[in-house]
Amino acid sequence: MPFAHITGWGMYVPEPVLTNDDISKLVETSDEWIRERTGIRERHIASETDFPSTMGVEAAIRALKVANLVPTELDLIICTSSSPEYIFPATACLIQDQIGATKAGAFDLQAACTGFVYALNMGAQAIRSGSIKNVLVVGTEVLSRFTNWKDRNTCILFGDGAGAFVLQASDQPGGVMSAVMHSDGSGADALNVPAGGAHCPATEATIREGKHFIHMDGKEVFRFATRVMGKAVTEALEQIQLTTNDVQWIVPHQANYRIIDSAAKHLKMPLDKFVINVDRYGNTSTASVPIATIEAIQKSQIKPKDKVVFVAFGGGLTWAAMVVEWTGPLPSKKHVRVEPYRWFARLRSYIRRILRHIEGFFSRKEL
Ligand code: ACO
Q1: What is the predicted pLDDT for the residue at 363?
Q2: Is residue 269 a part of any domain in this protein?
Q3: Residue 363 lies in a domain
Q4: What is the CATH number of the domain that holds 122?
Q5: Nearest alpha carbon, ligand 1 atom 12
Q6: Which domain holds residue 95?
Q7: pTM of the model
Q8: What does the pLDDT average to over 95-107?
Q9: Helix ranges, 191-338 (H)
């Protein structure tokens, strides 16, 4: 059975930064309150030209470069987002088209902020089954467009960004070692976007009432998160007979510094084993685990052979943890250039659209 290794990683955050002081001009709050209750100082906010797909593409291209893999070698793209481009088509398909992953299947996976860990596990399982070799997992968020900037309970929390990992099959032991995934739909009301789906289609009234924005029972989510984070880590470690002593790094979902602190206490682990960057990005939902991991790699904190645990929670309610033995790019004699593929992809997409029009024109004539 092949092993599933994380061989490439890339992140993208839009340039504009929104500080707590900026938010205090929109709602009644203060930098001091936000920092004290959440640990957040600032977050990046998408500009008008940033979309979940375009941000996901930037992260994906960077991840492919690290993995030394071209888009046409990908077998599968899983995109996970709490703020997807559309209800359908899948954002994964838009990314597939924009990077020119000509032979890849593509689908979206929805598990709110837990999505990236779920998606990594699904990608790893597909590799472990032996049916495919190369998977791209993307978490990408433009939550700022689903945020009610008049609601101080939520608008202080979220930020925009994207992160991507490449998973590849190898006979060398390592990579994804274990994972647990959980859900509890009885808590669906605690964190949701009430309108815009089939249950409550968008109308003038739903928009007037702000039901197309994120709604959250902050206290309830806080209690749930502190209850499940530590437990999920222990469960994933126990699956492979490891303990927290074997772990070099925990990369938690970056929602609130106090939630991470409480998980550290539950696990009796020092906080300096936790990768934390919520102060500079806020909660970027599905992108938070890859962005935090990538920063830790860039600071030479996460190194090959380290045991790393990803743990996340979110709407659904959902939560998950995964243990990984860090490896990095697979050894290879080739050196690929990824950048030209996106330009070929653009041209290919354009030509295919034109051909589809021509085909449509002639098939109408035939009818
Ligand atoms: N500025 C100033 N005061 C505020 C603000 C604000 N931004 N927000 C709330 N308050 C007030 C409240 O009105 C309340 O006042 P009151 O006591 O007079 O009623 C007081 O501050 C305390 O409010 P709490 O809600 O008890 O504040 P708490 O300490 O719980 O912090 C927070 C709120 C930060 C939202 C916290 O509950 C939290 O982080 N929850 C988890 C949220 C989360 O992780 N969500 C993402 C999940 S992942 C996903 O799937 C998207």
Answers
A1: 83
A2: yes
A3: no
A4: 3.40.47.10
A5: 153
A6: 3-325
A7: 0.95
A8: 97
A9: 204-208, 218-238, 257-267, 278-281, 288-298
